[in-house]
């Protein structure tokens, strides 16, 4: 298998995007579009002046009939000539993704549902249920604090019936510096009481780790946001090595933990995947946001990590360009990285092809029991 | 624009070195020179045995009429044949820097003043005022503790009349793990009392964060030393993500914060610049010290960072070789990095040329309101 | 010196492997072998699915008469046809290592002794004595707590008579977040009392830092495990910058500290080596485990580090493939990195050759006073 043959093989891989969100429901004007291609929640200079912005001009423009690297203005003009569902269909049908695992816990009203994404893309979709959102839902509907623990379990059971995974955003709400032990029922009730008294955002560390333990006991793969995200987190508190003792304690439960995104802690994630059999990770979101640097970052994630413990995701949300770009940049990056190992004589072409398939698809098939 | 054309374009860019110090006043013997090409404050084996040492032999030797990569002995011999101001003129007039922003708060007696640097270089110079040095000055001249807060404000007002920025070295004096809130006048007075009682080095976290808040209220861009420096700091305490909550709190003031150097936390700096509209950063000092590795490190800084938020500086202090080397290595590095993106087909040549101009000059023009 | 000549020069360098363990005593079946090519202490999918696994197939297969990159099965079949001491001889005599510095403090019964390693390899061997193991030995033989401090000093004196260095695994037992001051005799006795009362694993921070101080007072180079290792440590607690204040305090003792492995904190290690004259480091274990990525990681370690402060080690333990692979991957990596600097015109070929010799051999000769 030559480099070209590897590129062909990777281009034809049917990917599983194991962590993604819906595409935008309504039309996106320039301001809305620019706000969705940054993780910042603040107004900024043009967000096209970034690796992601250049990558959109480079890789998405041709799908709208434009030359690669046209100006942002020309790109947005072409984009505005199509309606959002037509745009979604164009990009989603070009991703080469057979299965999307959709996190429905974030701004679900702004983006398509799990079923709508399936219709637009022609791919299979599966749900990933966000723990914090479910507790918030229960709290809105259950006024009796003492009934919340059972109500939450019941809610989780019903919500996860057809789901393939769980997700936690404890990284945003508290960071990973929490007590690794499982809280007692009494601790949980006290914390719920406190929370019910003011009903501010769910950020109580007792409740958050109760969710983590409850999620880990559920048995489905548990996805954790790690590292890079918006300004609402403090990056150093999301270093996944802070999870070490908690990972040791939940190991006997047999639940798989999947660290998402991980930048700039992807080497740390690789270490955890190396030493713990129940830890996997991806470089979703990252691969897309770093654009022309995707291969370098991806390669750093392939140092200590066993090749059976790395996954593909886009973490795309909103414009379908992101769903497409995640897949496209990952394909370019993995080809460059593994093709580089082959070119240096360090790997065989067969090794490269097989590992690309593990990361792009087969590890997710095994982990989530889907896709076949 | 071909790679060669990009290199030409970058070679001709008129840079703004937005954080620098003066050049050495007196002659430098071998020991003094070697001590100034390391951040260590300890005696060492030859400091030429380092990336910076090799870079001096590689890039500075030709300006003294020597072959690139002559021995350190030959280099020092040629150097010793010229007086320091002649050396300064040789290197300073070759930097292609139109404007120097000069931090005058460190060992100002050993190096040229803001005006002298202008004369030697033929470039414009502007002052950056160091907050800690100004409070130390006030403390030397004001014996009444209760008068210090007003005296400091008055001093700051007078010192910053012609200045373009402020600088803090809280990274050295305490690290970034300080209480992010603004201290009350009572807290400040108590802390001043404590400090006046022993007059040791200014390292009280209350006073340091009072300086930061006062600096942020002044409105001028506020430069913060981040990461790599001499043995006087503890590196992990200078991780800029520790500033997150403080950055959130000063955001309403509208002051721009500029993170300096940042190694090995330049990816973290890129994240902060990505999510906060009032955060920029550079890889000054770093680009110079890592020598042949400058392109790699610079590229890591260009992953998440919006291109309007990255600046050029040398942080040179002492031998004018450093002022020259900062600019020269940055030009080589940015050409290699952006030219590489173009060669891979990921960026257009025009993108590369424009982003080089933003980082080398235009972002500083906008941020500091200088240079035009 | 062309790139080929540099490769030849590096290939012929007589290395000093300044931190290594013995080779396996008994035969290794597939399960045992796979468990020894991972740092995980948990059962896993095939550990051949990793950079180290591919590197074994790539670089070790030819020494067993196989094609590079044969399958793991074919490799293991060829391996099983030879007895372990024959395998050891094959790989050890191909390393080009003149001197092994052997850490005897870990699972010494499973691997060859210092003398046996010399016999199998035909190289010189020297002992590195592990501080924690010696205190555990004393505790097994001395029931009177008050006699332990003197007994430990006597034991250390006798054990280090022919030794060339000391080693500490405080990274595993507590992490580097310990009080940097030397504990008093009273503190040590209290801590010993506490430890003697339950005799669990030696992880008391008072005792661990007493060992560090005692080791530093002994004067021999003191090796510290840093960063990546098995699941028994918490990675972020092994960031070597946490040692800063302790390094400052022991500096007057004149003892050299050598940071081992360091991944992913090798840039931090380079910073410490830059600012502290008594700090050196290596990328042992790392270079081997990251396989095809070795050059990239090694290059990151050569940014701030003075070239007189970087060493070579394998940290191999068990299968002699690892002793061979450490040397082989280091040679490939250093050739690629330094040859790259030469190819870019940033270094002279002579610089590259000399620095390879410093790192591979001469720095260890000077530091440990061996090998000549």
TrEMBL record, chains A, B, C:
Gene Ontology MF, one: hydrolase activity
Taxonomic superkingdom: Bacteria
Listed InterPro entries: Amidohydro-rel, Metal_Hydrolase
Occurrences of domain Amidohydrolase-related (ranges): 200-370
Pfam families linked: Amidohydro_2
Name of the protein: Amidohydrolase-related domain-containing protein
Organism field: Kribbella caucasensis
